[in-house]
Amino acid sequence: MNTQNSQYELIIFEIEIMNKIQLDETICALATPAGVGAIGVIRVSGEQSIQIVNTIFKGKNLLEVPTHTLHFGKIMDGADLVDEVLVSVFKGTKSYTGENSIEISCHGSPYIQQRILHILVQTGARLAQPGEFTMRAFLNKKLDLSQAEAVADVIASHSEMSHKTAMNQMRGGFSKEIAGLKERLVNFASLIELELDFSEEDVEFASRPELKDLVQNMVRLIHGLTETFKVGNAIKNGIPTVIAGKPNAGKSTLLNALVKEDRAIVSAIAGTTRDTIEESFIIDGIQFRLIDTAGIREHTSDSIESIGIEKTHEKIRQASIVLYVFDVHETSAAALEQETATMAQMDLVLIPIGNKIDLVHELEIKQKFSGRTDIIYLSSKEQIGMNLLESRLKQVLNKDQIKNDVIISNIRHYQGLLLAGESLQQVLESMAIGRSGELLAFDIRKAIFHLSEIIGEVSTDDLLENIFSKFCIGK
Ligand SMILES: Nc1nc2c(ncn2[C@@H]2O[C@H](COP(=O)(O)OP(=O)(O)OP(=O)(O)O)[C@@H](O)[C@H]2O)c(=O)[nH]1
Ligand SMILES: [Mg+2]
Fold first, then answer.
1. Residue 191 above 90 pLDDT?
2. Which of 149, 205, 262, 420 has the fewest CB atoms lying closer than 10 Å?
3. Ligand 2 center to 300 CA (angstroms)
């Protein structure tokens, strides 16, 4: 009981932790990619930002211009003209960071950009850390933490689907879901805690059947969300799709045909590919990470080839989809069955690819594999039947389902939800064996804590630093 109590207090304490990160300094950074370009944009944010830029800007007095306005002028280094620029002025809280900020569009010369940054630093700004602008947006409550994380995902998005899930998260779809869950729990926790205050009188403010219903419902909702992580992760990072099969089956030819580029070496020598080769391609807005592997054979005296084969097995274990390529001419139905038996038992989508159909008669194939409807027949070399494979790959992710639901694509959110779910499961167990209200309240608070951490209502400097250090500088 004692240890439970001290943990309980610890959680309350953690909820009250304040972030110590300082907001009073003015930060600046190049927001466009380094290097030569048509224009470069330098971002400055902080209480003093407009004042600082105003001292090096020759044109209108920026302290007097209205917010959200654009001004032409010159950046001066003492008497020296550095560049002719456009500055965008944002005053007060209606800016990305939620504080005074200013963007300088200058000519895209690395020399000019560095020189302007240098003058800004001399005038009182400091260089920003990676992600510091977005971190300020979070600390100034312009975004919650999961939305801030989605900003990085939007920038990194490489396909229609990854863009869509990141955009949905950035616009608050997921946050709303979590905040809703949390609010319902907070209500119950306060009722139970009220009971504790009246413990002498043995009253129940929080109806137990209602609480049980609520918690069961929430466990289901949380489970539904964590279930989307596999798909969400695949959308974000590309679906790991391994091309496996025996040597010479035509795996590398298939990779090249799918990515429409001579990426992997193809030769008639069995054992050509030794290391894995990775290349991504997009079908219908979904990114697949194609991984060509060394051909699997039982006996090889070549030590490098056996390392390659070991790697193939490892990649298969990590795959979501395996394209098992076999030579239709040389493979019997029984051999195919035996070669794919282990994979068929694994948690992955196995697509057998009957390759080299240009070498055999259609009738022969139909007879040979008459019992199987899952095989896709094609010729990688002649590029016959490639569209059948592409259609099959499209079916692996059900896009209609993805459009409507909130998808978890961030491992931190996934883990937070798992922990919240575990605490709620504990509440159900405690209720089943009639444990005290104190213990129920403890586990409910724990679940609230994990949900709050996802949206950043509870956060520590370490957590924030860890998240934002992965952003680019200037964002
Ligand atoms: N006729 C025909 N030949 C093909 C086809 N696909 C591949 N080949 C040939 O089969 C041979 C082996 O092709 P690769 O793509 O190197 O085979 P692999 O499976 O990557 O082989 P390893 O890397 O050695 O495991 C090459 O000579 C290819 O030109 C096809 O669809 N039809
Ligand atoms: Mg190969």
1. no
2. 262
3. 16
